[in-house]
Model the fold of this input.
Amino acid sequence: MALMTRAFALLLLSIPASWADDAPLVYLHVNENGAEEWLRVKDGAIVIRVPKGDYLRRPYEGGPATEEPKPFAVGSFLVDKHEVTNARFARFLGEAGDDAAKLVRPGIPGILRAGGGWVAEAGLEQHPVTAATGHGAVAYAKWAGARIPTQPEWERAAGGAEGRLYPWGAAEPDATRANFGRPSPRGTLPVGSFAAGASPYGCLDMAGNAYDRVLTGRGAVMIKGGSWLSPHPLNLRVLDLCMQSMDVADRSVGFRCAMDDPEPDRSPRAPTPSPALKLAKDFETAVKEARDRKVPVFLTLLLDTCGQCDRTREQLLRDPRFVAYCNERLVVILGHQPGDAVLDPHPAREDGSCTLYPGLTCDEHEAIFQKGLDVVGRFVVSPGNFVLHPGRIRGGAGAEAVLVPERDLPKWGDAVDEYLAAFERARKAME
Done:
């Protein structure tokens, strides 16, 4: 059976072509809550824009909230959608040099020393980092081009303009909305595990999982939102607060970052379609584009008969952060062939267009698969993913063309953070 090629070329819809390569933020979309989501390039965090305006601020009350909230003005700002994870904090520690040991408390699950550096503990990569001290939280935020949110900012992001009692409203927490200690504590869970507990802007885990550090005049010593250890719903209220020294870390306190809004007087954006991944229809044309733009090539080689390829296609290649980053800073070349299904490949339509990659023919992505394989020589486990230097791409180049090898690119479909970090390494290697 003759090899056919089918690389899909989907339109770049929403990122301005004039943005510089070093832009700290890349616009993603307006989320289902009507709030803008952006990618902070330095650490791969999704950040949400909270527009300026008053919010109804509730005073702290130890029992049921009875006092009337009062309007409080807050300027527009950006806040992380999720708490900072062990994976992100470990990457930061790897760049912190000799100061790293002062920013983390050993013995707390999530962060480990390894080979003179730091790694996220296996299985806890996407859990909130709780081994960071207050000094570690502040240092991470500065490294990421951000800061720790103030109390009014945190409360506005968590409770919205109407000053909700909990991020989701007035209903008491339950197992669908938050990770807290009822009926019994179970430890941290991956960030973003409770979509039903989202704040009015779409921020997640602002009640339960790990406390968030909040900036005061004495540093990031206030903690808010409760945690997996909190046995009572009162601890998870937006108005509730507690304190934690800057020198301390324990298993229940994490943090998220905030940023000044670079355009504080701009009106919120209207919803727009999420951008689709831009891929070339022709291998040589794609390589030339990458050489002209002086950007790396991400080569992915997939098969019909590979479950990991299916997850990569449906999750990684459609993730809005991944799409926005690749469309702006890389050239992506996708090759696909039947694999073990050579006698029964996925069907093309009558006009030759592909049912997996709308808008392209099935002939195209199989030809690209063969040309990509001619460059790298082989891959160990499908999908075969590589980041390549466009100036070194030629038949038989093998490792000479590789900036990030296959072994450094995860095979599971939701490893967006790991891919963005690898792409940044490749871009720096080309400078």
